[in-house]
Amino acid sequence: MVTLGIFDAFTxxxxxxxxxxxxITVGVSVISVILSFIxxxxxxxxxxxxxxxxxxxxxxINNIIRNLPLLLIIFxxxxxxxKLGIHLPIFWATVVAMSTFESxxxxxxxxxxxxxxxxxxFEGARANGLSNLQTMFYIVLPQAxxxxxxxxxxxxxxxxxxxxxxxxxxxxxxxxxxxxxYAQNSTYIIPVLIVITLIYxxxxxxxxxxxxxxxxxxx
Amino acid sequence: xxxxxxxxxxxxxxxxxxxxxxxxxxxxxxxxxxxFAILQILPQKWVQKVGNIxxxxxxxxxxxxxxxxxxxxxxxxxxMNGFTAGTIALxxxxxxxxxxxxxxxxxxxxxxxMEGARANGLSFWQAMQHIVLPQAxxxxxxxxxNQFINLVKNSSILAFVGGLDLMYQGNMVAANTFDTFGTYIxxxxxxxxxxxxxxYYMQHLERKLxxxx
Lengths: 219, 213
Description:
Chain A: It is found in: Cell membrane. Chain A: Belongs to the binding-protein-dependent transport system permease family. The structure holds two protein chains of two kinds. By secondary structure, chain A is an all-alpha fold. Chain A has eight helices and no strands. In chain A, helix 1 (12-49) runs antiparallel to helix 2 (54-66), helix 5 (119-127) runs antiparallel to helix 6 and helix 7 packs antiparallel against helix 8 (189-218). Chain B is mostly helical. Chains A and B meet through helix 2, helix 3, helix 6 and helix 8 of A and helix 3, helix 4, helix 7, helix 8 and helix 9 of B.
């Protein structure tokens, strides 16, 4: 069996364990992208609407979050929030941290998308008797979202990559589980790292192809 | 405040290492990124392919995995500490994003510029270096700035490999003092000192460029 070498690391249990980690990676990413899509849209619209004081305030908070390392936010949510009496299990701490960070990224994308919509669309809709909110929901947002699909998919790619940071708080995602496997035997390091790399690459490259397809369709 | 006073030298050391790692990675990734951007626009198909594969690989795998690869695998052959391994990984990872940015910059320079330069007797490389690249960098400046902000934020990855950076020192202080809340707020402020002014300046530049266009 010594000759097999590289494949020793991939016993059925280890493969199953690693794939379970992939499930958690994908789970965190999908939940976070949905939450940050909603929160990011709200924050982006608030910034776009230029409400007195409120928009400036929200924009400043957004800029602060956007300019912090995600790793710091993850540590903060998991290790510092309990001091304020907010205790979250590891999985949800990760989701909260990633959604907070990604919302601030998506808010910028939403704001940019809204600003790229022609002013005439607002004026036309308002002139036809739609309220401000109706104009936003039925006329402007659908057009803006269409343009935003490619950047939103690249944010999803970042999310999938960034879930690996959650091993810092011992979330049992794929990178962490890989580490557990190669901790059994140091000859496992290279094969396990290669397989994890391949899985991340295939997942993200697939997503980037989808983004490119939308890009070419919309152009 | 006591927390900041008692551990000031630790935070400052971490801040120094974060800055050092970011600046080294910026220089290396600019050189690598520009190189791979040019590869992707050369006429030879296979050269384009090489550039493209490099960019796709490093863009689509987590920075943490690249860091572990250098720290756990390459370090066995070429001895290096966590700081070096992390900075190399950071440089390679960022270079893929910079390559994309610079390539977009080059493509947005009017093709007449290259043709005009060639017609005036400049070689391809001369035209690239003196005519096209300076214009491309100017267009790409706001996105390059944003890449540098990402670089500073991503340097927190050094904490995973004992890289002595701000995040690493912050974790140490948090573990020693048990004041996780105060410590992470201070760490955040140190990061913001670098990233926030840069971010506002890049927004300003972007707006200026948009008005100029």
